[in-house]
Specification:
Blueprint (H helix, E strand, L loop, with lengths): L6 H5 L21 H7 L2 H13 L24 H5 L5 E4 L8 H6 L7 H24 L7 H26 L21 H14 L12 H14 L3 H14 L28 E5 L33 E4 L1 H5 L43 H4 E2 L20 H4 L3 E2 L9 H4 E2 L6 E2 L3 E5 H14 L3 H16 L6 E3 L9 E5 L12 H5 L1 H15 L6 H8 L2 H12 L23 H6 L1 E2 L2 E2 L9
Antiparallel strand pairs: 1-3, 2-8, 4-5, 6-7, 9-10, 11-12
Length: 595
């Protein structure tokens, strides 16, 4: 079910059913009787379900966001709201480009910022579509009980996902479900019970496998429900589910969950049906002649700039602070959990591309070179990363380039979408992958005192990183990157598992610090970090330390300051508050700390 492009034609038949919002995100125009007659059947409901999946990428058929703004304002990868805010990434480009990101990165954004409104509206569009599926399903008479159960469970899984995204970004948000008739609802209820109820229903009713890759299954629902419990600090409830998912969970196509042999396999379209996929958002290149509307539009600013073969746009640069996290101790192969910046990795900041440069010779975690483009290291099969010539402004965004979202030159014909002014790609966005599951399970076990089990999960992730099969290697022929790779590692890689009994002897706090660190490097640039820091209660400490360090090196975060009690959540979009006027009063209430 590779991105649901055919839904556009199907839905166009239902002229009375408008899936896009009318005047605001929570408005839902009424369905006329003719429209309901057309849709309330097996074909129509399944088409609506595909439309609910289609909303996952936050992008409409015209390539703009479902919130009406630019696609990158509502990106499902949360590259702005989850990665840039956490210190994983700089905005990149230069200070004058996409200036609305700068206040978000530095935590002085107000409620009028367009990124907040676009994201809010796109997520509520997803909620609206899932509600339509559930409501019209109840009126269909030609769907068997088993089919109806599967459809309803998929829709409720997706609705839970949209609300989970809303909850972690804004905390208190309005509840709109299939029975809602007044869409001007207050944001005065905690939605965790609603989210967990939808995910529990999905877990109880979804089949183990599905006929199409991209649909959700029972194991994905179990993992997501466990994640929801984890966010609520309900560790015992989460552990039960994580244990089941780890022991017997399978992908939609029936593969038992496992880590890919190579870290990079997670980001290859040709290997998207792999055992590490738990819940993914499908992307596809070259299916829309008018532009890359299905090719991860939300991230198409995030390619190297300048003389690079990608052309645009230089955003989403890994930070110096992030890269330094990948330093390992040469004696142990373990990370420096609290002192990583004391062992900074050599970079080419301020060095012209024409000047000589020798990359860092110290020991490194090999995941670094699948995460960040570094001067003198192979940039997939595009050649050695040249540094400054591919960067718009080093003094602003630093010396590194993004890598997980980059397609390979050898497969560009199928994986790249060049039908617009910036490149799209067929690289899926992994909402949950099995490494994430292992590390969330490790966190639960550490919180519950099961330190040996927690260490075994972390070591399973580190063992994959230590496997030389998945390392980056130098080219066979430096003049022809497409000729393949040699047997010589691209850098001095060294990563080891934690020694037996290490977590137990170090205690709970040490174990948790190691787990938190492992999530940082394993899931870097994947949109999770900010929300992790908030739920751990360490956002102010970690983010302000990042500002203190990175602000001395690049100019993009010199205004940064995270305020406890305010910046854990983003401001409710002012546009939505203004539109919630009822009886002379505004129904939606602003989050604490925002005017």
């Amino acid at each position: 079910m590779k991105k649901y492009t055919y839904i556009i034609l199907i839905l166009s038949v239902f002229t009375g059913l408008t899936l896009n919002s009318c005047k605001k995100a929570l408005d839902q125009p009424p369905l006329g009787s003719l429209s309901e007659e057309l849709v309330a059947n097996k074909s129509g409901v399944n088409s609506l379900l595909i439309g609910a999946y289609s909303a996952l990428d936050g992008t409409g058929s015209d390539g703009t966001s479902l919130g009406g703004g630019s696609a990158w304002e509502a990106s499902p990868s949360n590259w702005v709201l989850g990665s840039i805010t956490s210190g994983d990434a700089s905005k990149g480009s230069d200070g004058s480009d996409q200036p609305a990101i700068d206040p978000i990165a530095n935590f002085y954004a107000d409620a009028n910022n367009v990124f907040f409104n676009s994201k809010w509206k796109a997520l509520y569009e997803g909620v609206s579509r899932t509600n339509n599926v559930i409501r019209l399903l109840a009126k269909a008479t030609d769907i068997s009980a088993d089919e109806a159960k599967n459809i309803s469970a998929q829709a409720r899984f997706l609705r839970a996902h949209y609300y989970f995204e809303l909850k972690k970004a804004w905390n208190m948000v309005p509840l709109i479900d299939e029975s809602t008739t007044n869409y001007n609802q207050p944001n005065d209820k905690d939605l965790w019970p609603v989210i967990t109820a939808d995910l529990q229903y999905a877990y109880d009713n979804l089949p183990a496998t599905q006929s199409e890759i991209g649909r959700v299954n029972k194991s994905a629902a179990g993992a997501y429900l466990a994640k929801a419990y984890l966010y609520q600090h309900k560790y015992a409830e989460a552990k039960v589910l994580f244990d089941q998912v780890i022991a017997s969970g399978v992908t939609t196509s029936g593969q038992k969950y496992d880590l890919n042999a190579s870290f990079e396999d997670n980001f290859l379209p040709s290997k998207e049906d792999n055992p590490e996929v738990v819940f993914t958002i499908e992307m596809a290149a070259n299916v829309d002649p008018s532009g890359p509307s299905n090719a991860n539009n939300g991230d198409f600013l995030n390619f190297p700039y300048g003389s690079s073969p990608f052309g645009c746009c230089g955003f989403f640069q890994p930070t110096i602070d992030l890269v330094n996290h990948f330093r390992t101790n040469p004696a142990t192969g373990l990370p420096y959990l609290s002192t990583y910046n004391d062992y900074a990795i050599k970079n080419d900041m301020g060095v012209l591309g024409t000047a000589p440069f020798t990359p860092d010779q110290g020991t490194l975690d090999p995941r670094l070179d699948w995460t960040a483009g570094r001067r003198g290291i192979p940039y997939l099969d595009w050649g050695y990363y040249p540094g400054e010539p591919w960067i718009r402004d080093q003094s602003y965004g630093g010396p590194y380039g993004p890598k997980k979202n980059i397609y390979w030159q050898a497969t560009a014909a199928t994986d790249a979408d060049l039908t617009s002014w910036a490149p799209g790609s067929a690289i899926n966005y992994l909402v949950i992958r099995f490494a994430d599951v292992l590390l969330m399970a490790a966190e639960c076990d550490a919180q519950l005192g099961n330190l040996s089990i927690a260490q075994s999960y972390v070591n399973r992730v580190r063992a994959r990183a230590a496997n030389k099969v998945g390392w980056v290697y130098k080219y066979k022929d430096d003049t022809n990157p497409l000729a393949g790779f040699s047997d010589t590692p691209a850098a001095n890689y060294l990563v080891s598992e934690y020694p037996a009994g290490d977590f137990a002897s170090g205690g709970k706090d040490y174990a948790l610090s190691a787990i938190y660190y492992e999530r940082k490097i394993e899931l870097a640039m994947e949109g999770h970090r900010f929300f992790d820091l908030v739920r751990w209660g360490i956002a102010a400490k970690e983010i302000n330390a990042y500002f203190s360090y990175q602000g001395k090196l690049t100019s993009d975060v010199r205004r940064g300051n995270f305020l406890t009690g305010k910046n854990e959540y983003f401001p409710i979009p002012q546009r939505q508050i203004d539109l919630s006027l009822s009886g002379g009063a505004k129904v939606l209430k602003q989050n604490p700390g925002y005017n």
